[in-house]
Hints:
Shape: globular
Largest sheet: 6 strands, antiparallel
Structural class: alpha+beta
Number of strands: 17
Oligomer: single chain
Amino acid sequence: MCGICGFYSKAYKTFNNTILKMNLAISHRGPDSSGVWQDREKGIFIGHQRLSILDLSIAGNQPMISNSGRFVLTFNGEIYNHLEIRKELQNLNFNIKWKSNTDTETLLEALELWGIEKTLKKVVGMFAFGIWDKKNHHLTLARDRVGEKPLYFGWQGKGENKVFIFGSELKALKLHPEFDGKINRNAVALQMRLNSIPDPYSIYTDIYKLLPGHYIKLNENDLKNGLLPKPKKYWSIMETAVNGINNQHEISKEDIERDLENNLKLSVKQQMLSDVPIGAFLSGGIDSSTIVALMQSQSNRSVKTFTIGFGENDHNEARHAKKIANYLGTDHTEFYVSPKKAMQIIPKLPIIYDEPFSDSSQIPTFFVSELASKNVKVALSGDGADELLCGYGRYISADSGSKKFDLIPTSLRNILAYSMKSIGSDSWNKIFNLLPINNNLNNYGHKIHKGANALEAKTFSELYYILCSDWQNPSEVVINSKESLNYLNELEKKFSKINNQQKMMILDTMNYLPNDILVKVDRAAMNSSLETRVPFLNHKLIEYIWKIPHGLKFQNGEGKLILKKILSNYIPKKLMERPKKGFSIPLDSWLRGPLKDWAENLLSEKRLSQEGYFNVELVRRKWSEHINNEYNWQNDLWNVLMFQAWIDVNN
C-alpha cells in the first residue's frame, strides 16, 4: 500500500523539484520510504511513497526498474497471488534474477514478459500503478477490477507548458504549477445526490478518475500532442454479473454453501499474508464478523480487532462487536467517540478526502482507522458483502415495491406519498416509538419519507435514483449544473432479464462501492498510514458469488442468507439476530446540538449568496426545518456542509 504520482511535460526545465513536492504531499500513504525517478530529456517524472508490508528491506523501494532496465514502475496496492505468478514465470524458464521478495517486483517482471493485458487478467489483488516504457516512450496507468485503489489523471496547462499528471490523490496533482483547479459544477450536483463524486469525474474540470477494471496507455504521439486516449476495459462487474446469472451453479445448496465458505477462507488467508502486524475492523455486523471469524479460524494467535462506539444507544454498535470479539477470542480494542471528539476531526475531513465527500460514516471510519494504526499496519474489512449478497435495505424495498406498486394506480400512489410526507420525520419517529412493536427498522421517519418518494417512481431508473439519493433533484440546488449518469440506461437496455434487486446490486458495485465505500475507507486509513484489505472483493470470489442462485441470497424479505448460514458455523445465531444499522453516527441530533454553530456558519445566507454555488432559499429552508425538528434533513445538509467545508480549505 503506497502513494504514487508523476507527470509528463515537454517543458521539464520549468518544473524543477515539482515531483519532490508532489511526492511529499502524499507521504501519509507511504511514510517508510520516498523515491523519484526521472528522464528529463524525455520529460517523464515518477514518484513513489512506500508503506512497507512485504519484504521490508530497501530492495522493495520504488520506483522500481525491471531487470532489463526497460520499464519503470510505481505501484500502489497488493498482489495476493504474486508467489504463484512468480513461480509460473520461473517455470517458463525466464531467467529472472530476483532482487527482492516483493509483489512489486513480481508485477513488474510479469508486465515486461507478458504485457499489460495478460498480466492484468492474471493478477489477483488491489492496485493502481503507472509504468513507463523507456524504449517506446509509452506511459500506462491501470486500476484494479473493483476500484479499491484510487488513480486520478488528466492534462493541464497550455501550449509548451501542457502537462499530463497522475496520482493517488488530488493533493499531489494540485502541487504541479500548471494545475488549473476549475471546479466542475456538474460533479457537485452528483455529490449532492450520491454523497460522493463518481468515476470517471472529479471535482475539477479535465481531471478524471480511471474507471475500475480499466487501463489507459499513452503513446509517444499522445504525450507529444496532449491527447487522451480512451481507457481500455480488461474486466467488468456488469459482464461478470450477467455471465453469472446466465450460468448458475447446478449443485446442491449444501455444496454451494461449502464452496462459498472455502472460497471466502482462501481469500481471507491470501489477504492475511504480511510481514507486519495485521488486524481487522469489527462492527459486530454479519460482514465484519464473518471476516474476523474466518481470520481467527486460520490464526494461531488472537486476531487484533477494532471498533468504534457512541454514547447514543441507537447508533452504538460497540457492545455488539464486543460480544462477537469475546466469543471468538480476539484481542479487542474499542474507542467511544464523543461529539466533542468528532468536532475536532470534522475540519480535517476536506483535507483527508481531497474532494467533497459526504458519507457521514467517514467520521467513525477515520477513528477506527486511527485506532487500528496504533497497533497494526494492515486491517481487513467486511466491505462488499452487501452489494454481492443482497444486504441493503433498498434491495428489500425494490423487491416489495416492484410487486406492489403496479397494483396501485399512479394517482393513488401520489396521494399516499403526499400524506406520508406531510408528517415530519421526527414526528414519525415519535409515533413508532410509542407503538408496541419490535422490528428491524430504526430511524423510521427517514425511511417512511424515502418510501413516500419511492411511491412516486414511474420506472426502475426513478426508483433506484430515489432509493440511493439524498437530494432528489440536485440540479435545483447546485446553480448552473447538470447531472451526468448513464449506468441505468446501459443496464436496462442490455439486460432485461435481470430482476430489480440484481440490477441494484450491479449498479451499487459499479458506483456506490468504489466511489463511496472504498473511497471512505482508503482515505481514512491511508491518512493514518494503515493498509486496508477487503476479502469479499477478490475477483474470483465475486465471479463465484454471481453464479449463486439469487434465492440463496435473498428470500422472504431477508438478504445475505447464505452468508448468515456460513457465519452460524462460527458464532451462535443469537449474536447475529439484531437490526442492521451500518457504520453511522447520530448526525441528526449533533446538527441540532454540538455541531449547530459550525453548520450555521457554513450555511449562512450571506456566505451561500457570495459563493454562488447553491440555491440559498432551498438550503436555508431545509436547515430551518431540520433544527426546528420538523424534518430530518441530515443527509441533504451534510452534502452541502462537506462541500462548504471543502471550499474553505481549497479556495
